[in-house]
Each structure stands twice: as structure tokens, then as C-alpha cells.
Amino acid sequence: MQLHIEDSRLKAVLEKVEAGQRLSFDDGLLLYSTPDLLAVGYMANLVRERLHGARTYFNVNRHINPTDVCVASCRLCAFGKRAKDPKAYTMSLDQVWTRAAEGWSESITEFHIVGGLHPELTLDWYCEMLRGLKDRFPGVHLKAFTMVEVAYFAHRAKISHREVLRKLIDAGVDSMPGGGAEIFSERVRRIICDHKIDGGEWLQVAKLAHQMGLKSNCTMLYGHLEDDSDSVDHLIKLREVQDETGGFVTFIPLAFHPDNTPLQHIPKTTGFNDLRQIAVSRLMLDNIPHIKAYWVMMTPQVAQIAQRFGANDIDGTVVEERIYHDAGSTVVQGLRRAELLRLIREAGREPVERDTAYRPVQRTENAFTVLV
Ligand code: V47
């Protein structure tokens, strides 16, 4: 396909992309500011197809949020509640295991577990929860706890990040999700999540987790008070850690959902911006293998188009989602496997069911095998 570049400033970026060269901070700024989204998407698609051909990955997973009680009160969040809030909930261990069992009936390969920063649940409680899940569902990958939760467990238990990670790994954590990174800019963090660890600590915990053998994902929250240089700075900081550790598997740009948050005056992101975020992240993060268009966050419709703008993953069945639905999302709670297949095929992509480590999963009638 011949690309018609409307914005001639992009020609130099295209040359770098074609030559497989690293893009600079200024290139990132240009990609965020140009109105020529089709050219940005074209370049991101080049990289995506170079890395993954026509493949789009998805998985059969279930989200579990054991509690929404949270001491942090981040302005960006509608999920966290004060312990006294009558709408707050905390599951018992049995309830967590029962929720997990509901997903098991669909041959789930991953539990994605995150929650609020609960002032009373102990690290031992979480470790017992993990051990109980591993005993009951030994074949299921536990992708659990963000860098923010690890730092909070360490603070509460008065032990180091390393000791927390050791205990979580011993109890069954297989990898970590990418949440809680928000935007590393301190100026913005002071407004949207002032009680959360700062960006430097998030990156340090990620580095440590990688050094201890855990893979993780990483994210960026966009569409709130950040400017283009905050976004480029965030992507480059992730790229630098990845140069050191190689531990990030997937990057997921997360669109801010303002409803029911103290920042609800901020307008929702647009399809144009959502697609741009996918494309720019594919182009800037040359060392992170996968870019995920999380359908819950972008809607299945935009996540589908994103498969032609740099994304090569659409996330999974999810089953039950709270963080975005508390913040006003009106998309369905979960998607069946067949619906994911249809979305991907319709975009002209080849669906590949994966496990968390991106190994293909082959299904028979009622079981699955991971192909190594
Ligand atoms: O950590 C919270 C963000 C994250 C809002 O690793 C919000 O595979 C938008 O990290 N509007 C949780 N975003 C989601 C997440 C995630 C999702 C899917 C897959 C993976 C993965 C990770 O959502 C939070 C926070 O950064 N968030 N509130 C909101 N109102």
C-alpha cells in the first residue's frame, strides 16, 4: 500500500520506522500533535505487522477484585471506596474462590486479580487467597497485584518490596498486571492520585519484580490533565526500564473514564485520541512486544479498529469488570470467546488464543492445551 502523507513533517519519522530506528522524544511529540492520524496509524501498523504478522491475541480470563475498600482516594478513580461506605465490599476467602470457580467452567487460563488498598487485610490473607487458588486451579496463571499494591503491602507489613514480592511469588503469583502507573508526571499525579506511590517508586518496584523473575505489563492513563510531553516522557521511562530488564510483556494505554469521579467535569476521550494512543505507543515502545487495545476500556468497536492501528491484542473474556463500570462504562461486562473471534476476524486479523505468556492455546471440546 502506498502511503499518502498529509503532514510532510512525518516523512522523517517514516524513514526511521522503515529502517527500524528508535524514535526520539521530539518524534513522540510530533506523533501526538499531528492531525494526520492515518499516517501515524499506517506507521504503527507497519511495526505491528513486522512483529506479529496478521495475528491478534486474546485470552480466556477472569477478573477478580477481592475488595474495593481503598485508603488512597485517588481523584481519577470511581472504584475505590472508604471502609465505612455502605456500598463498599470485601470478599471472604471463600467468596474469592467461589468467584474463581464460576470462571473455571469456561476453561479459563488466567485470573487477573487487583483490588483497593485495604487498611486491614494482611499480606498473609492475600497469600492464603493465592494458595487457595493454586490448590483449586493449579493450571490457571495468577496475574496479580499492581506495583502500587506491592508497595502498600510492604508499608503495612513493614517489610521491603523484595520481601513482599518473595512472599507473593512463593504463594503463587505468576506475573503482574500493569495498572497503577497512571502518568509519571509529578505535576499531574499530585492532582489525580496524590496518595499513591510516585512514578519513580512504581518503576523501581517493576524493575525489582523483573529482576526477581516476574514478568509484568505496564499502562498509561491518558485523557485527563496530561499534556503531550507528559505522555512522551511516560513512554520513554517505560522504554528505559525495558532496556534494562526486558520484563514488560504488554503495554496497555488506558482511557480516563470520568463518571462518578471527582474529575467528572473532564470530557471523555474520543475515538480519534484512543486510536492515536495505540499507534503512538506501538511506535515509541520499540522494545515492548505487545500493545493491547483493552476492549472494556475502548469499547469492542474501537478495540477492533485498533487492530489496524498498532495493537496486536484485545484482552480477554474478562467476565466481570468493576473499575470501568464504576466509572460509567456502558460496555458489556464480559465477552464470550466466539464474540472475540468475530471481532478479530472481521478486522481481517487472525485470532490466536494465548495464555498469559503468549503461548498459543489449543482447545478441544471441554479442555485446553498450551502449545509450547
Ligand atoms: O490501575 C482506575 C485505571 C487500572 C480509572 O495488565 C482508570 O493486562 C480509567 O490496569 N478511568 C486498572 N482508568 C486496569 C488495568 C488493566 C486492565 C486490563 C488489563 C491489564 C493488564 C491491566 O485502571 C488502574 C488505573 O490505572 N483506572 N480508574 C478510571 N476512572
Strand order of the largest sheet: 5-6-7-8
Number of strands: 12
Low-confidence parts lasting 5 or more residues at pLDDT below 50?
Answer: none
Count of helical regions? 14
Structural shape: globular
Keywords:
single chain, TIM Barrel, three-stranded parallel β-sheet, binds ligand V47, 372 residues, alpha/beta, four-stranded parallel β-sheet
What does this structure look like?
The mean pLDDT is 95. The protein has helices at 11-18, 25-33, 37-52, 93-104, 123-136, 147-157, 161-171, 186-192, 199-211, 228-245, 271-284, 295-306, 323-326, 337-346; strands at 55-59, 61-64, 110-113, 141-144, 175-176, 215-222, 248-255, 290-291, 313-316, 350-353, 361-363, 368-370. Helix 3 (37-52) crosses helix 11 (271-284) and helix 11 (271-284) packs across helix 12. Helix 4 links the parallel strand 2 and strand 3. Helices cover 43% and strands 14% of the residues. It is built from 14 helices and 12 strands. With 372 residues, it is of the alpha/beta class. The chain is globular and about 60 Å long. It has one domain (25-357): TIM Barrel. The chain has a 4-stranded parallel β-sheet. The chain has a 3-stranded parallel β-sheet with strand order 9-1-10, with helices on one face. A 3-stranded parallel β-sheet has the order 2-3-4, with helices on one face. The longest helix has 18 residues, at 228-245. Residues 76-79, 146, 177-180, 182, 217, 219, 221, 252, 254, 256-257, 261, 294, 315, 323, 327 line the site of ligand V47. Ligand V47 is lined by residues 76-79, 146, 177-180, 182, 217, 219, 221, 252, 254, 256-257, 261, 294, 315, 323, 327.
